What does this fold into?
Amino acid sequence: MNRQSTLPDPSRFFEIRFESIGGLGAHAAGQILARTAVLHMHLNGAHFSSYGSEKKGSVVRSYIRLGDADKAIRTSAPIDSPDVVVVFHTALLEQPITLAGLKSSSTLICNAAAGELPEGLSRVPVGAKIVRVDALKIAVEERSRPNAVLLGVLTATLPFLDAQAVLTGLSEGFAHHNPEAVAANERAFARGREEFEVLDHVGHGCEDLPVMRPQPVWGYQTAPIGGVLPLPGNTVWNDLTTSRTGWLPVFNTEECIHCGLCVLVCPDFCLVWSNEGAGTVPALECPDFSLTWSTEGPAEEAPSARMLGVDYRYCKGCLRCIETCPTEAMTREAETPGLADRLQVPLYPEINKRVGGTRGN
Ligand code: SF4
Ligand code: SF4
It folds into this structure.
């Protein structure tokens, strides 16, 4: 017996593209969605992802094709003109390729905080549906990941997706290797279904956005001569915001005993120290290691350097410094726009004065 199709247009595949950054769970979400469609929704499904260096923070694209059960999926080409694009991080909207191929009939789901609209949304073609959800905030509050929230939004936006089946698929995906995450993901999924917002009159594009394929910035004919840095000093404005998953380490100088343990565990050398003022810090006891430093004691007992704080340009938010700090001088705080800039240790005041920048102060 032929089952009635649930897809909006059974004559073709329904295509979804996730635009993300390593660490936000796009690949896992794509896998869960395609597997659930095959196992629990009587559909054919195919999924694959493409990523550059397998590093937290690098760009990830995940492609999901769904078709009726009697329609074999024999292509594994990237999805150029998607029915749905899900953007896992607003920073990606700055790149035209993120929204490439978006049609006036498409849906764009965007992980973005409430308030000012991310730049780039105005390019969306008139007629396309734009959905915003603060997936990062929900994920942080529920101790889940943005992918669980965005799967919830996806099921609320696409009626043909069986929400209960996708939630079961999500739970099954974590039940074996991370059972504690199941309840957190379920809460995040449920909130995603409820707490999204449809943005009207935001997209002003006159026509469908052109298809683009990722291309290397330089090829063999255009690359500069080996070893040349065409933009000297380019790493001063490095920005790892996109590698973090919602939490920032926050330094409290009052609690710090300058023991240096955080430096030992930080994988990216983000912690800034100074020799200035060393030996003048107040006496504080380290509860775990029974160390005491005091300006009153012999010179060799006073710390030879002082911890100043975190250089957030390189911090990827792994929070190892917090786990290691014996005095709670390092605590975590949900990252809000501009927080890292406000807490940034001033490092290059003379350079910023010259170029009028603020990053790295
Ligand atoms: S969160 Fe991780 S990367 Fe950032 S300062 Fe702490 S240890 Fe370093
Ligand atoms: S922040 Fe914590 S671990 Fe780092 S130097 Fe200060 S007390 Fe030690």
Remarks:
- The first strand starts at residue 14 and ends at 21.
- The chain has two domains: 14-199, 234-355.
- The radius of gyration is 24 Å.
- DSSP finds nine helices and 13 strands in the chain.
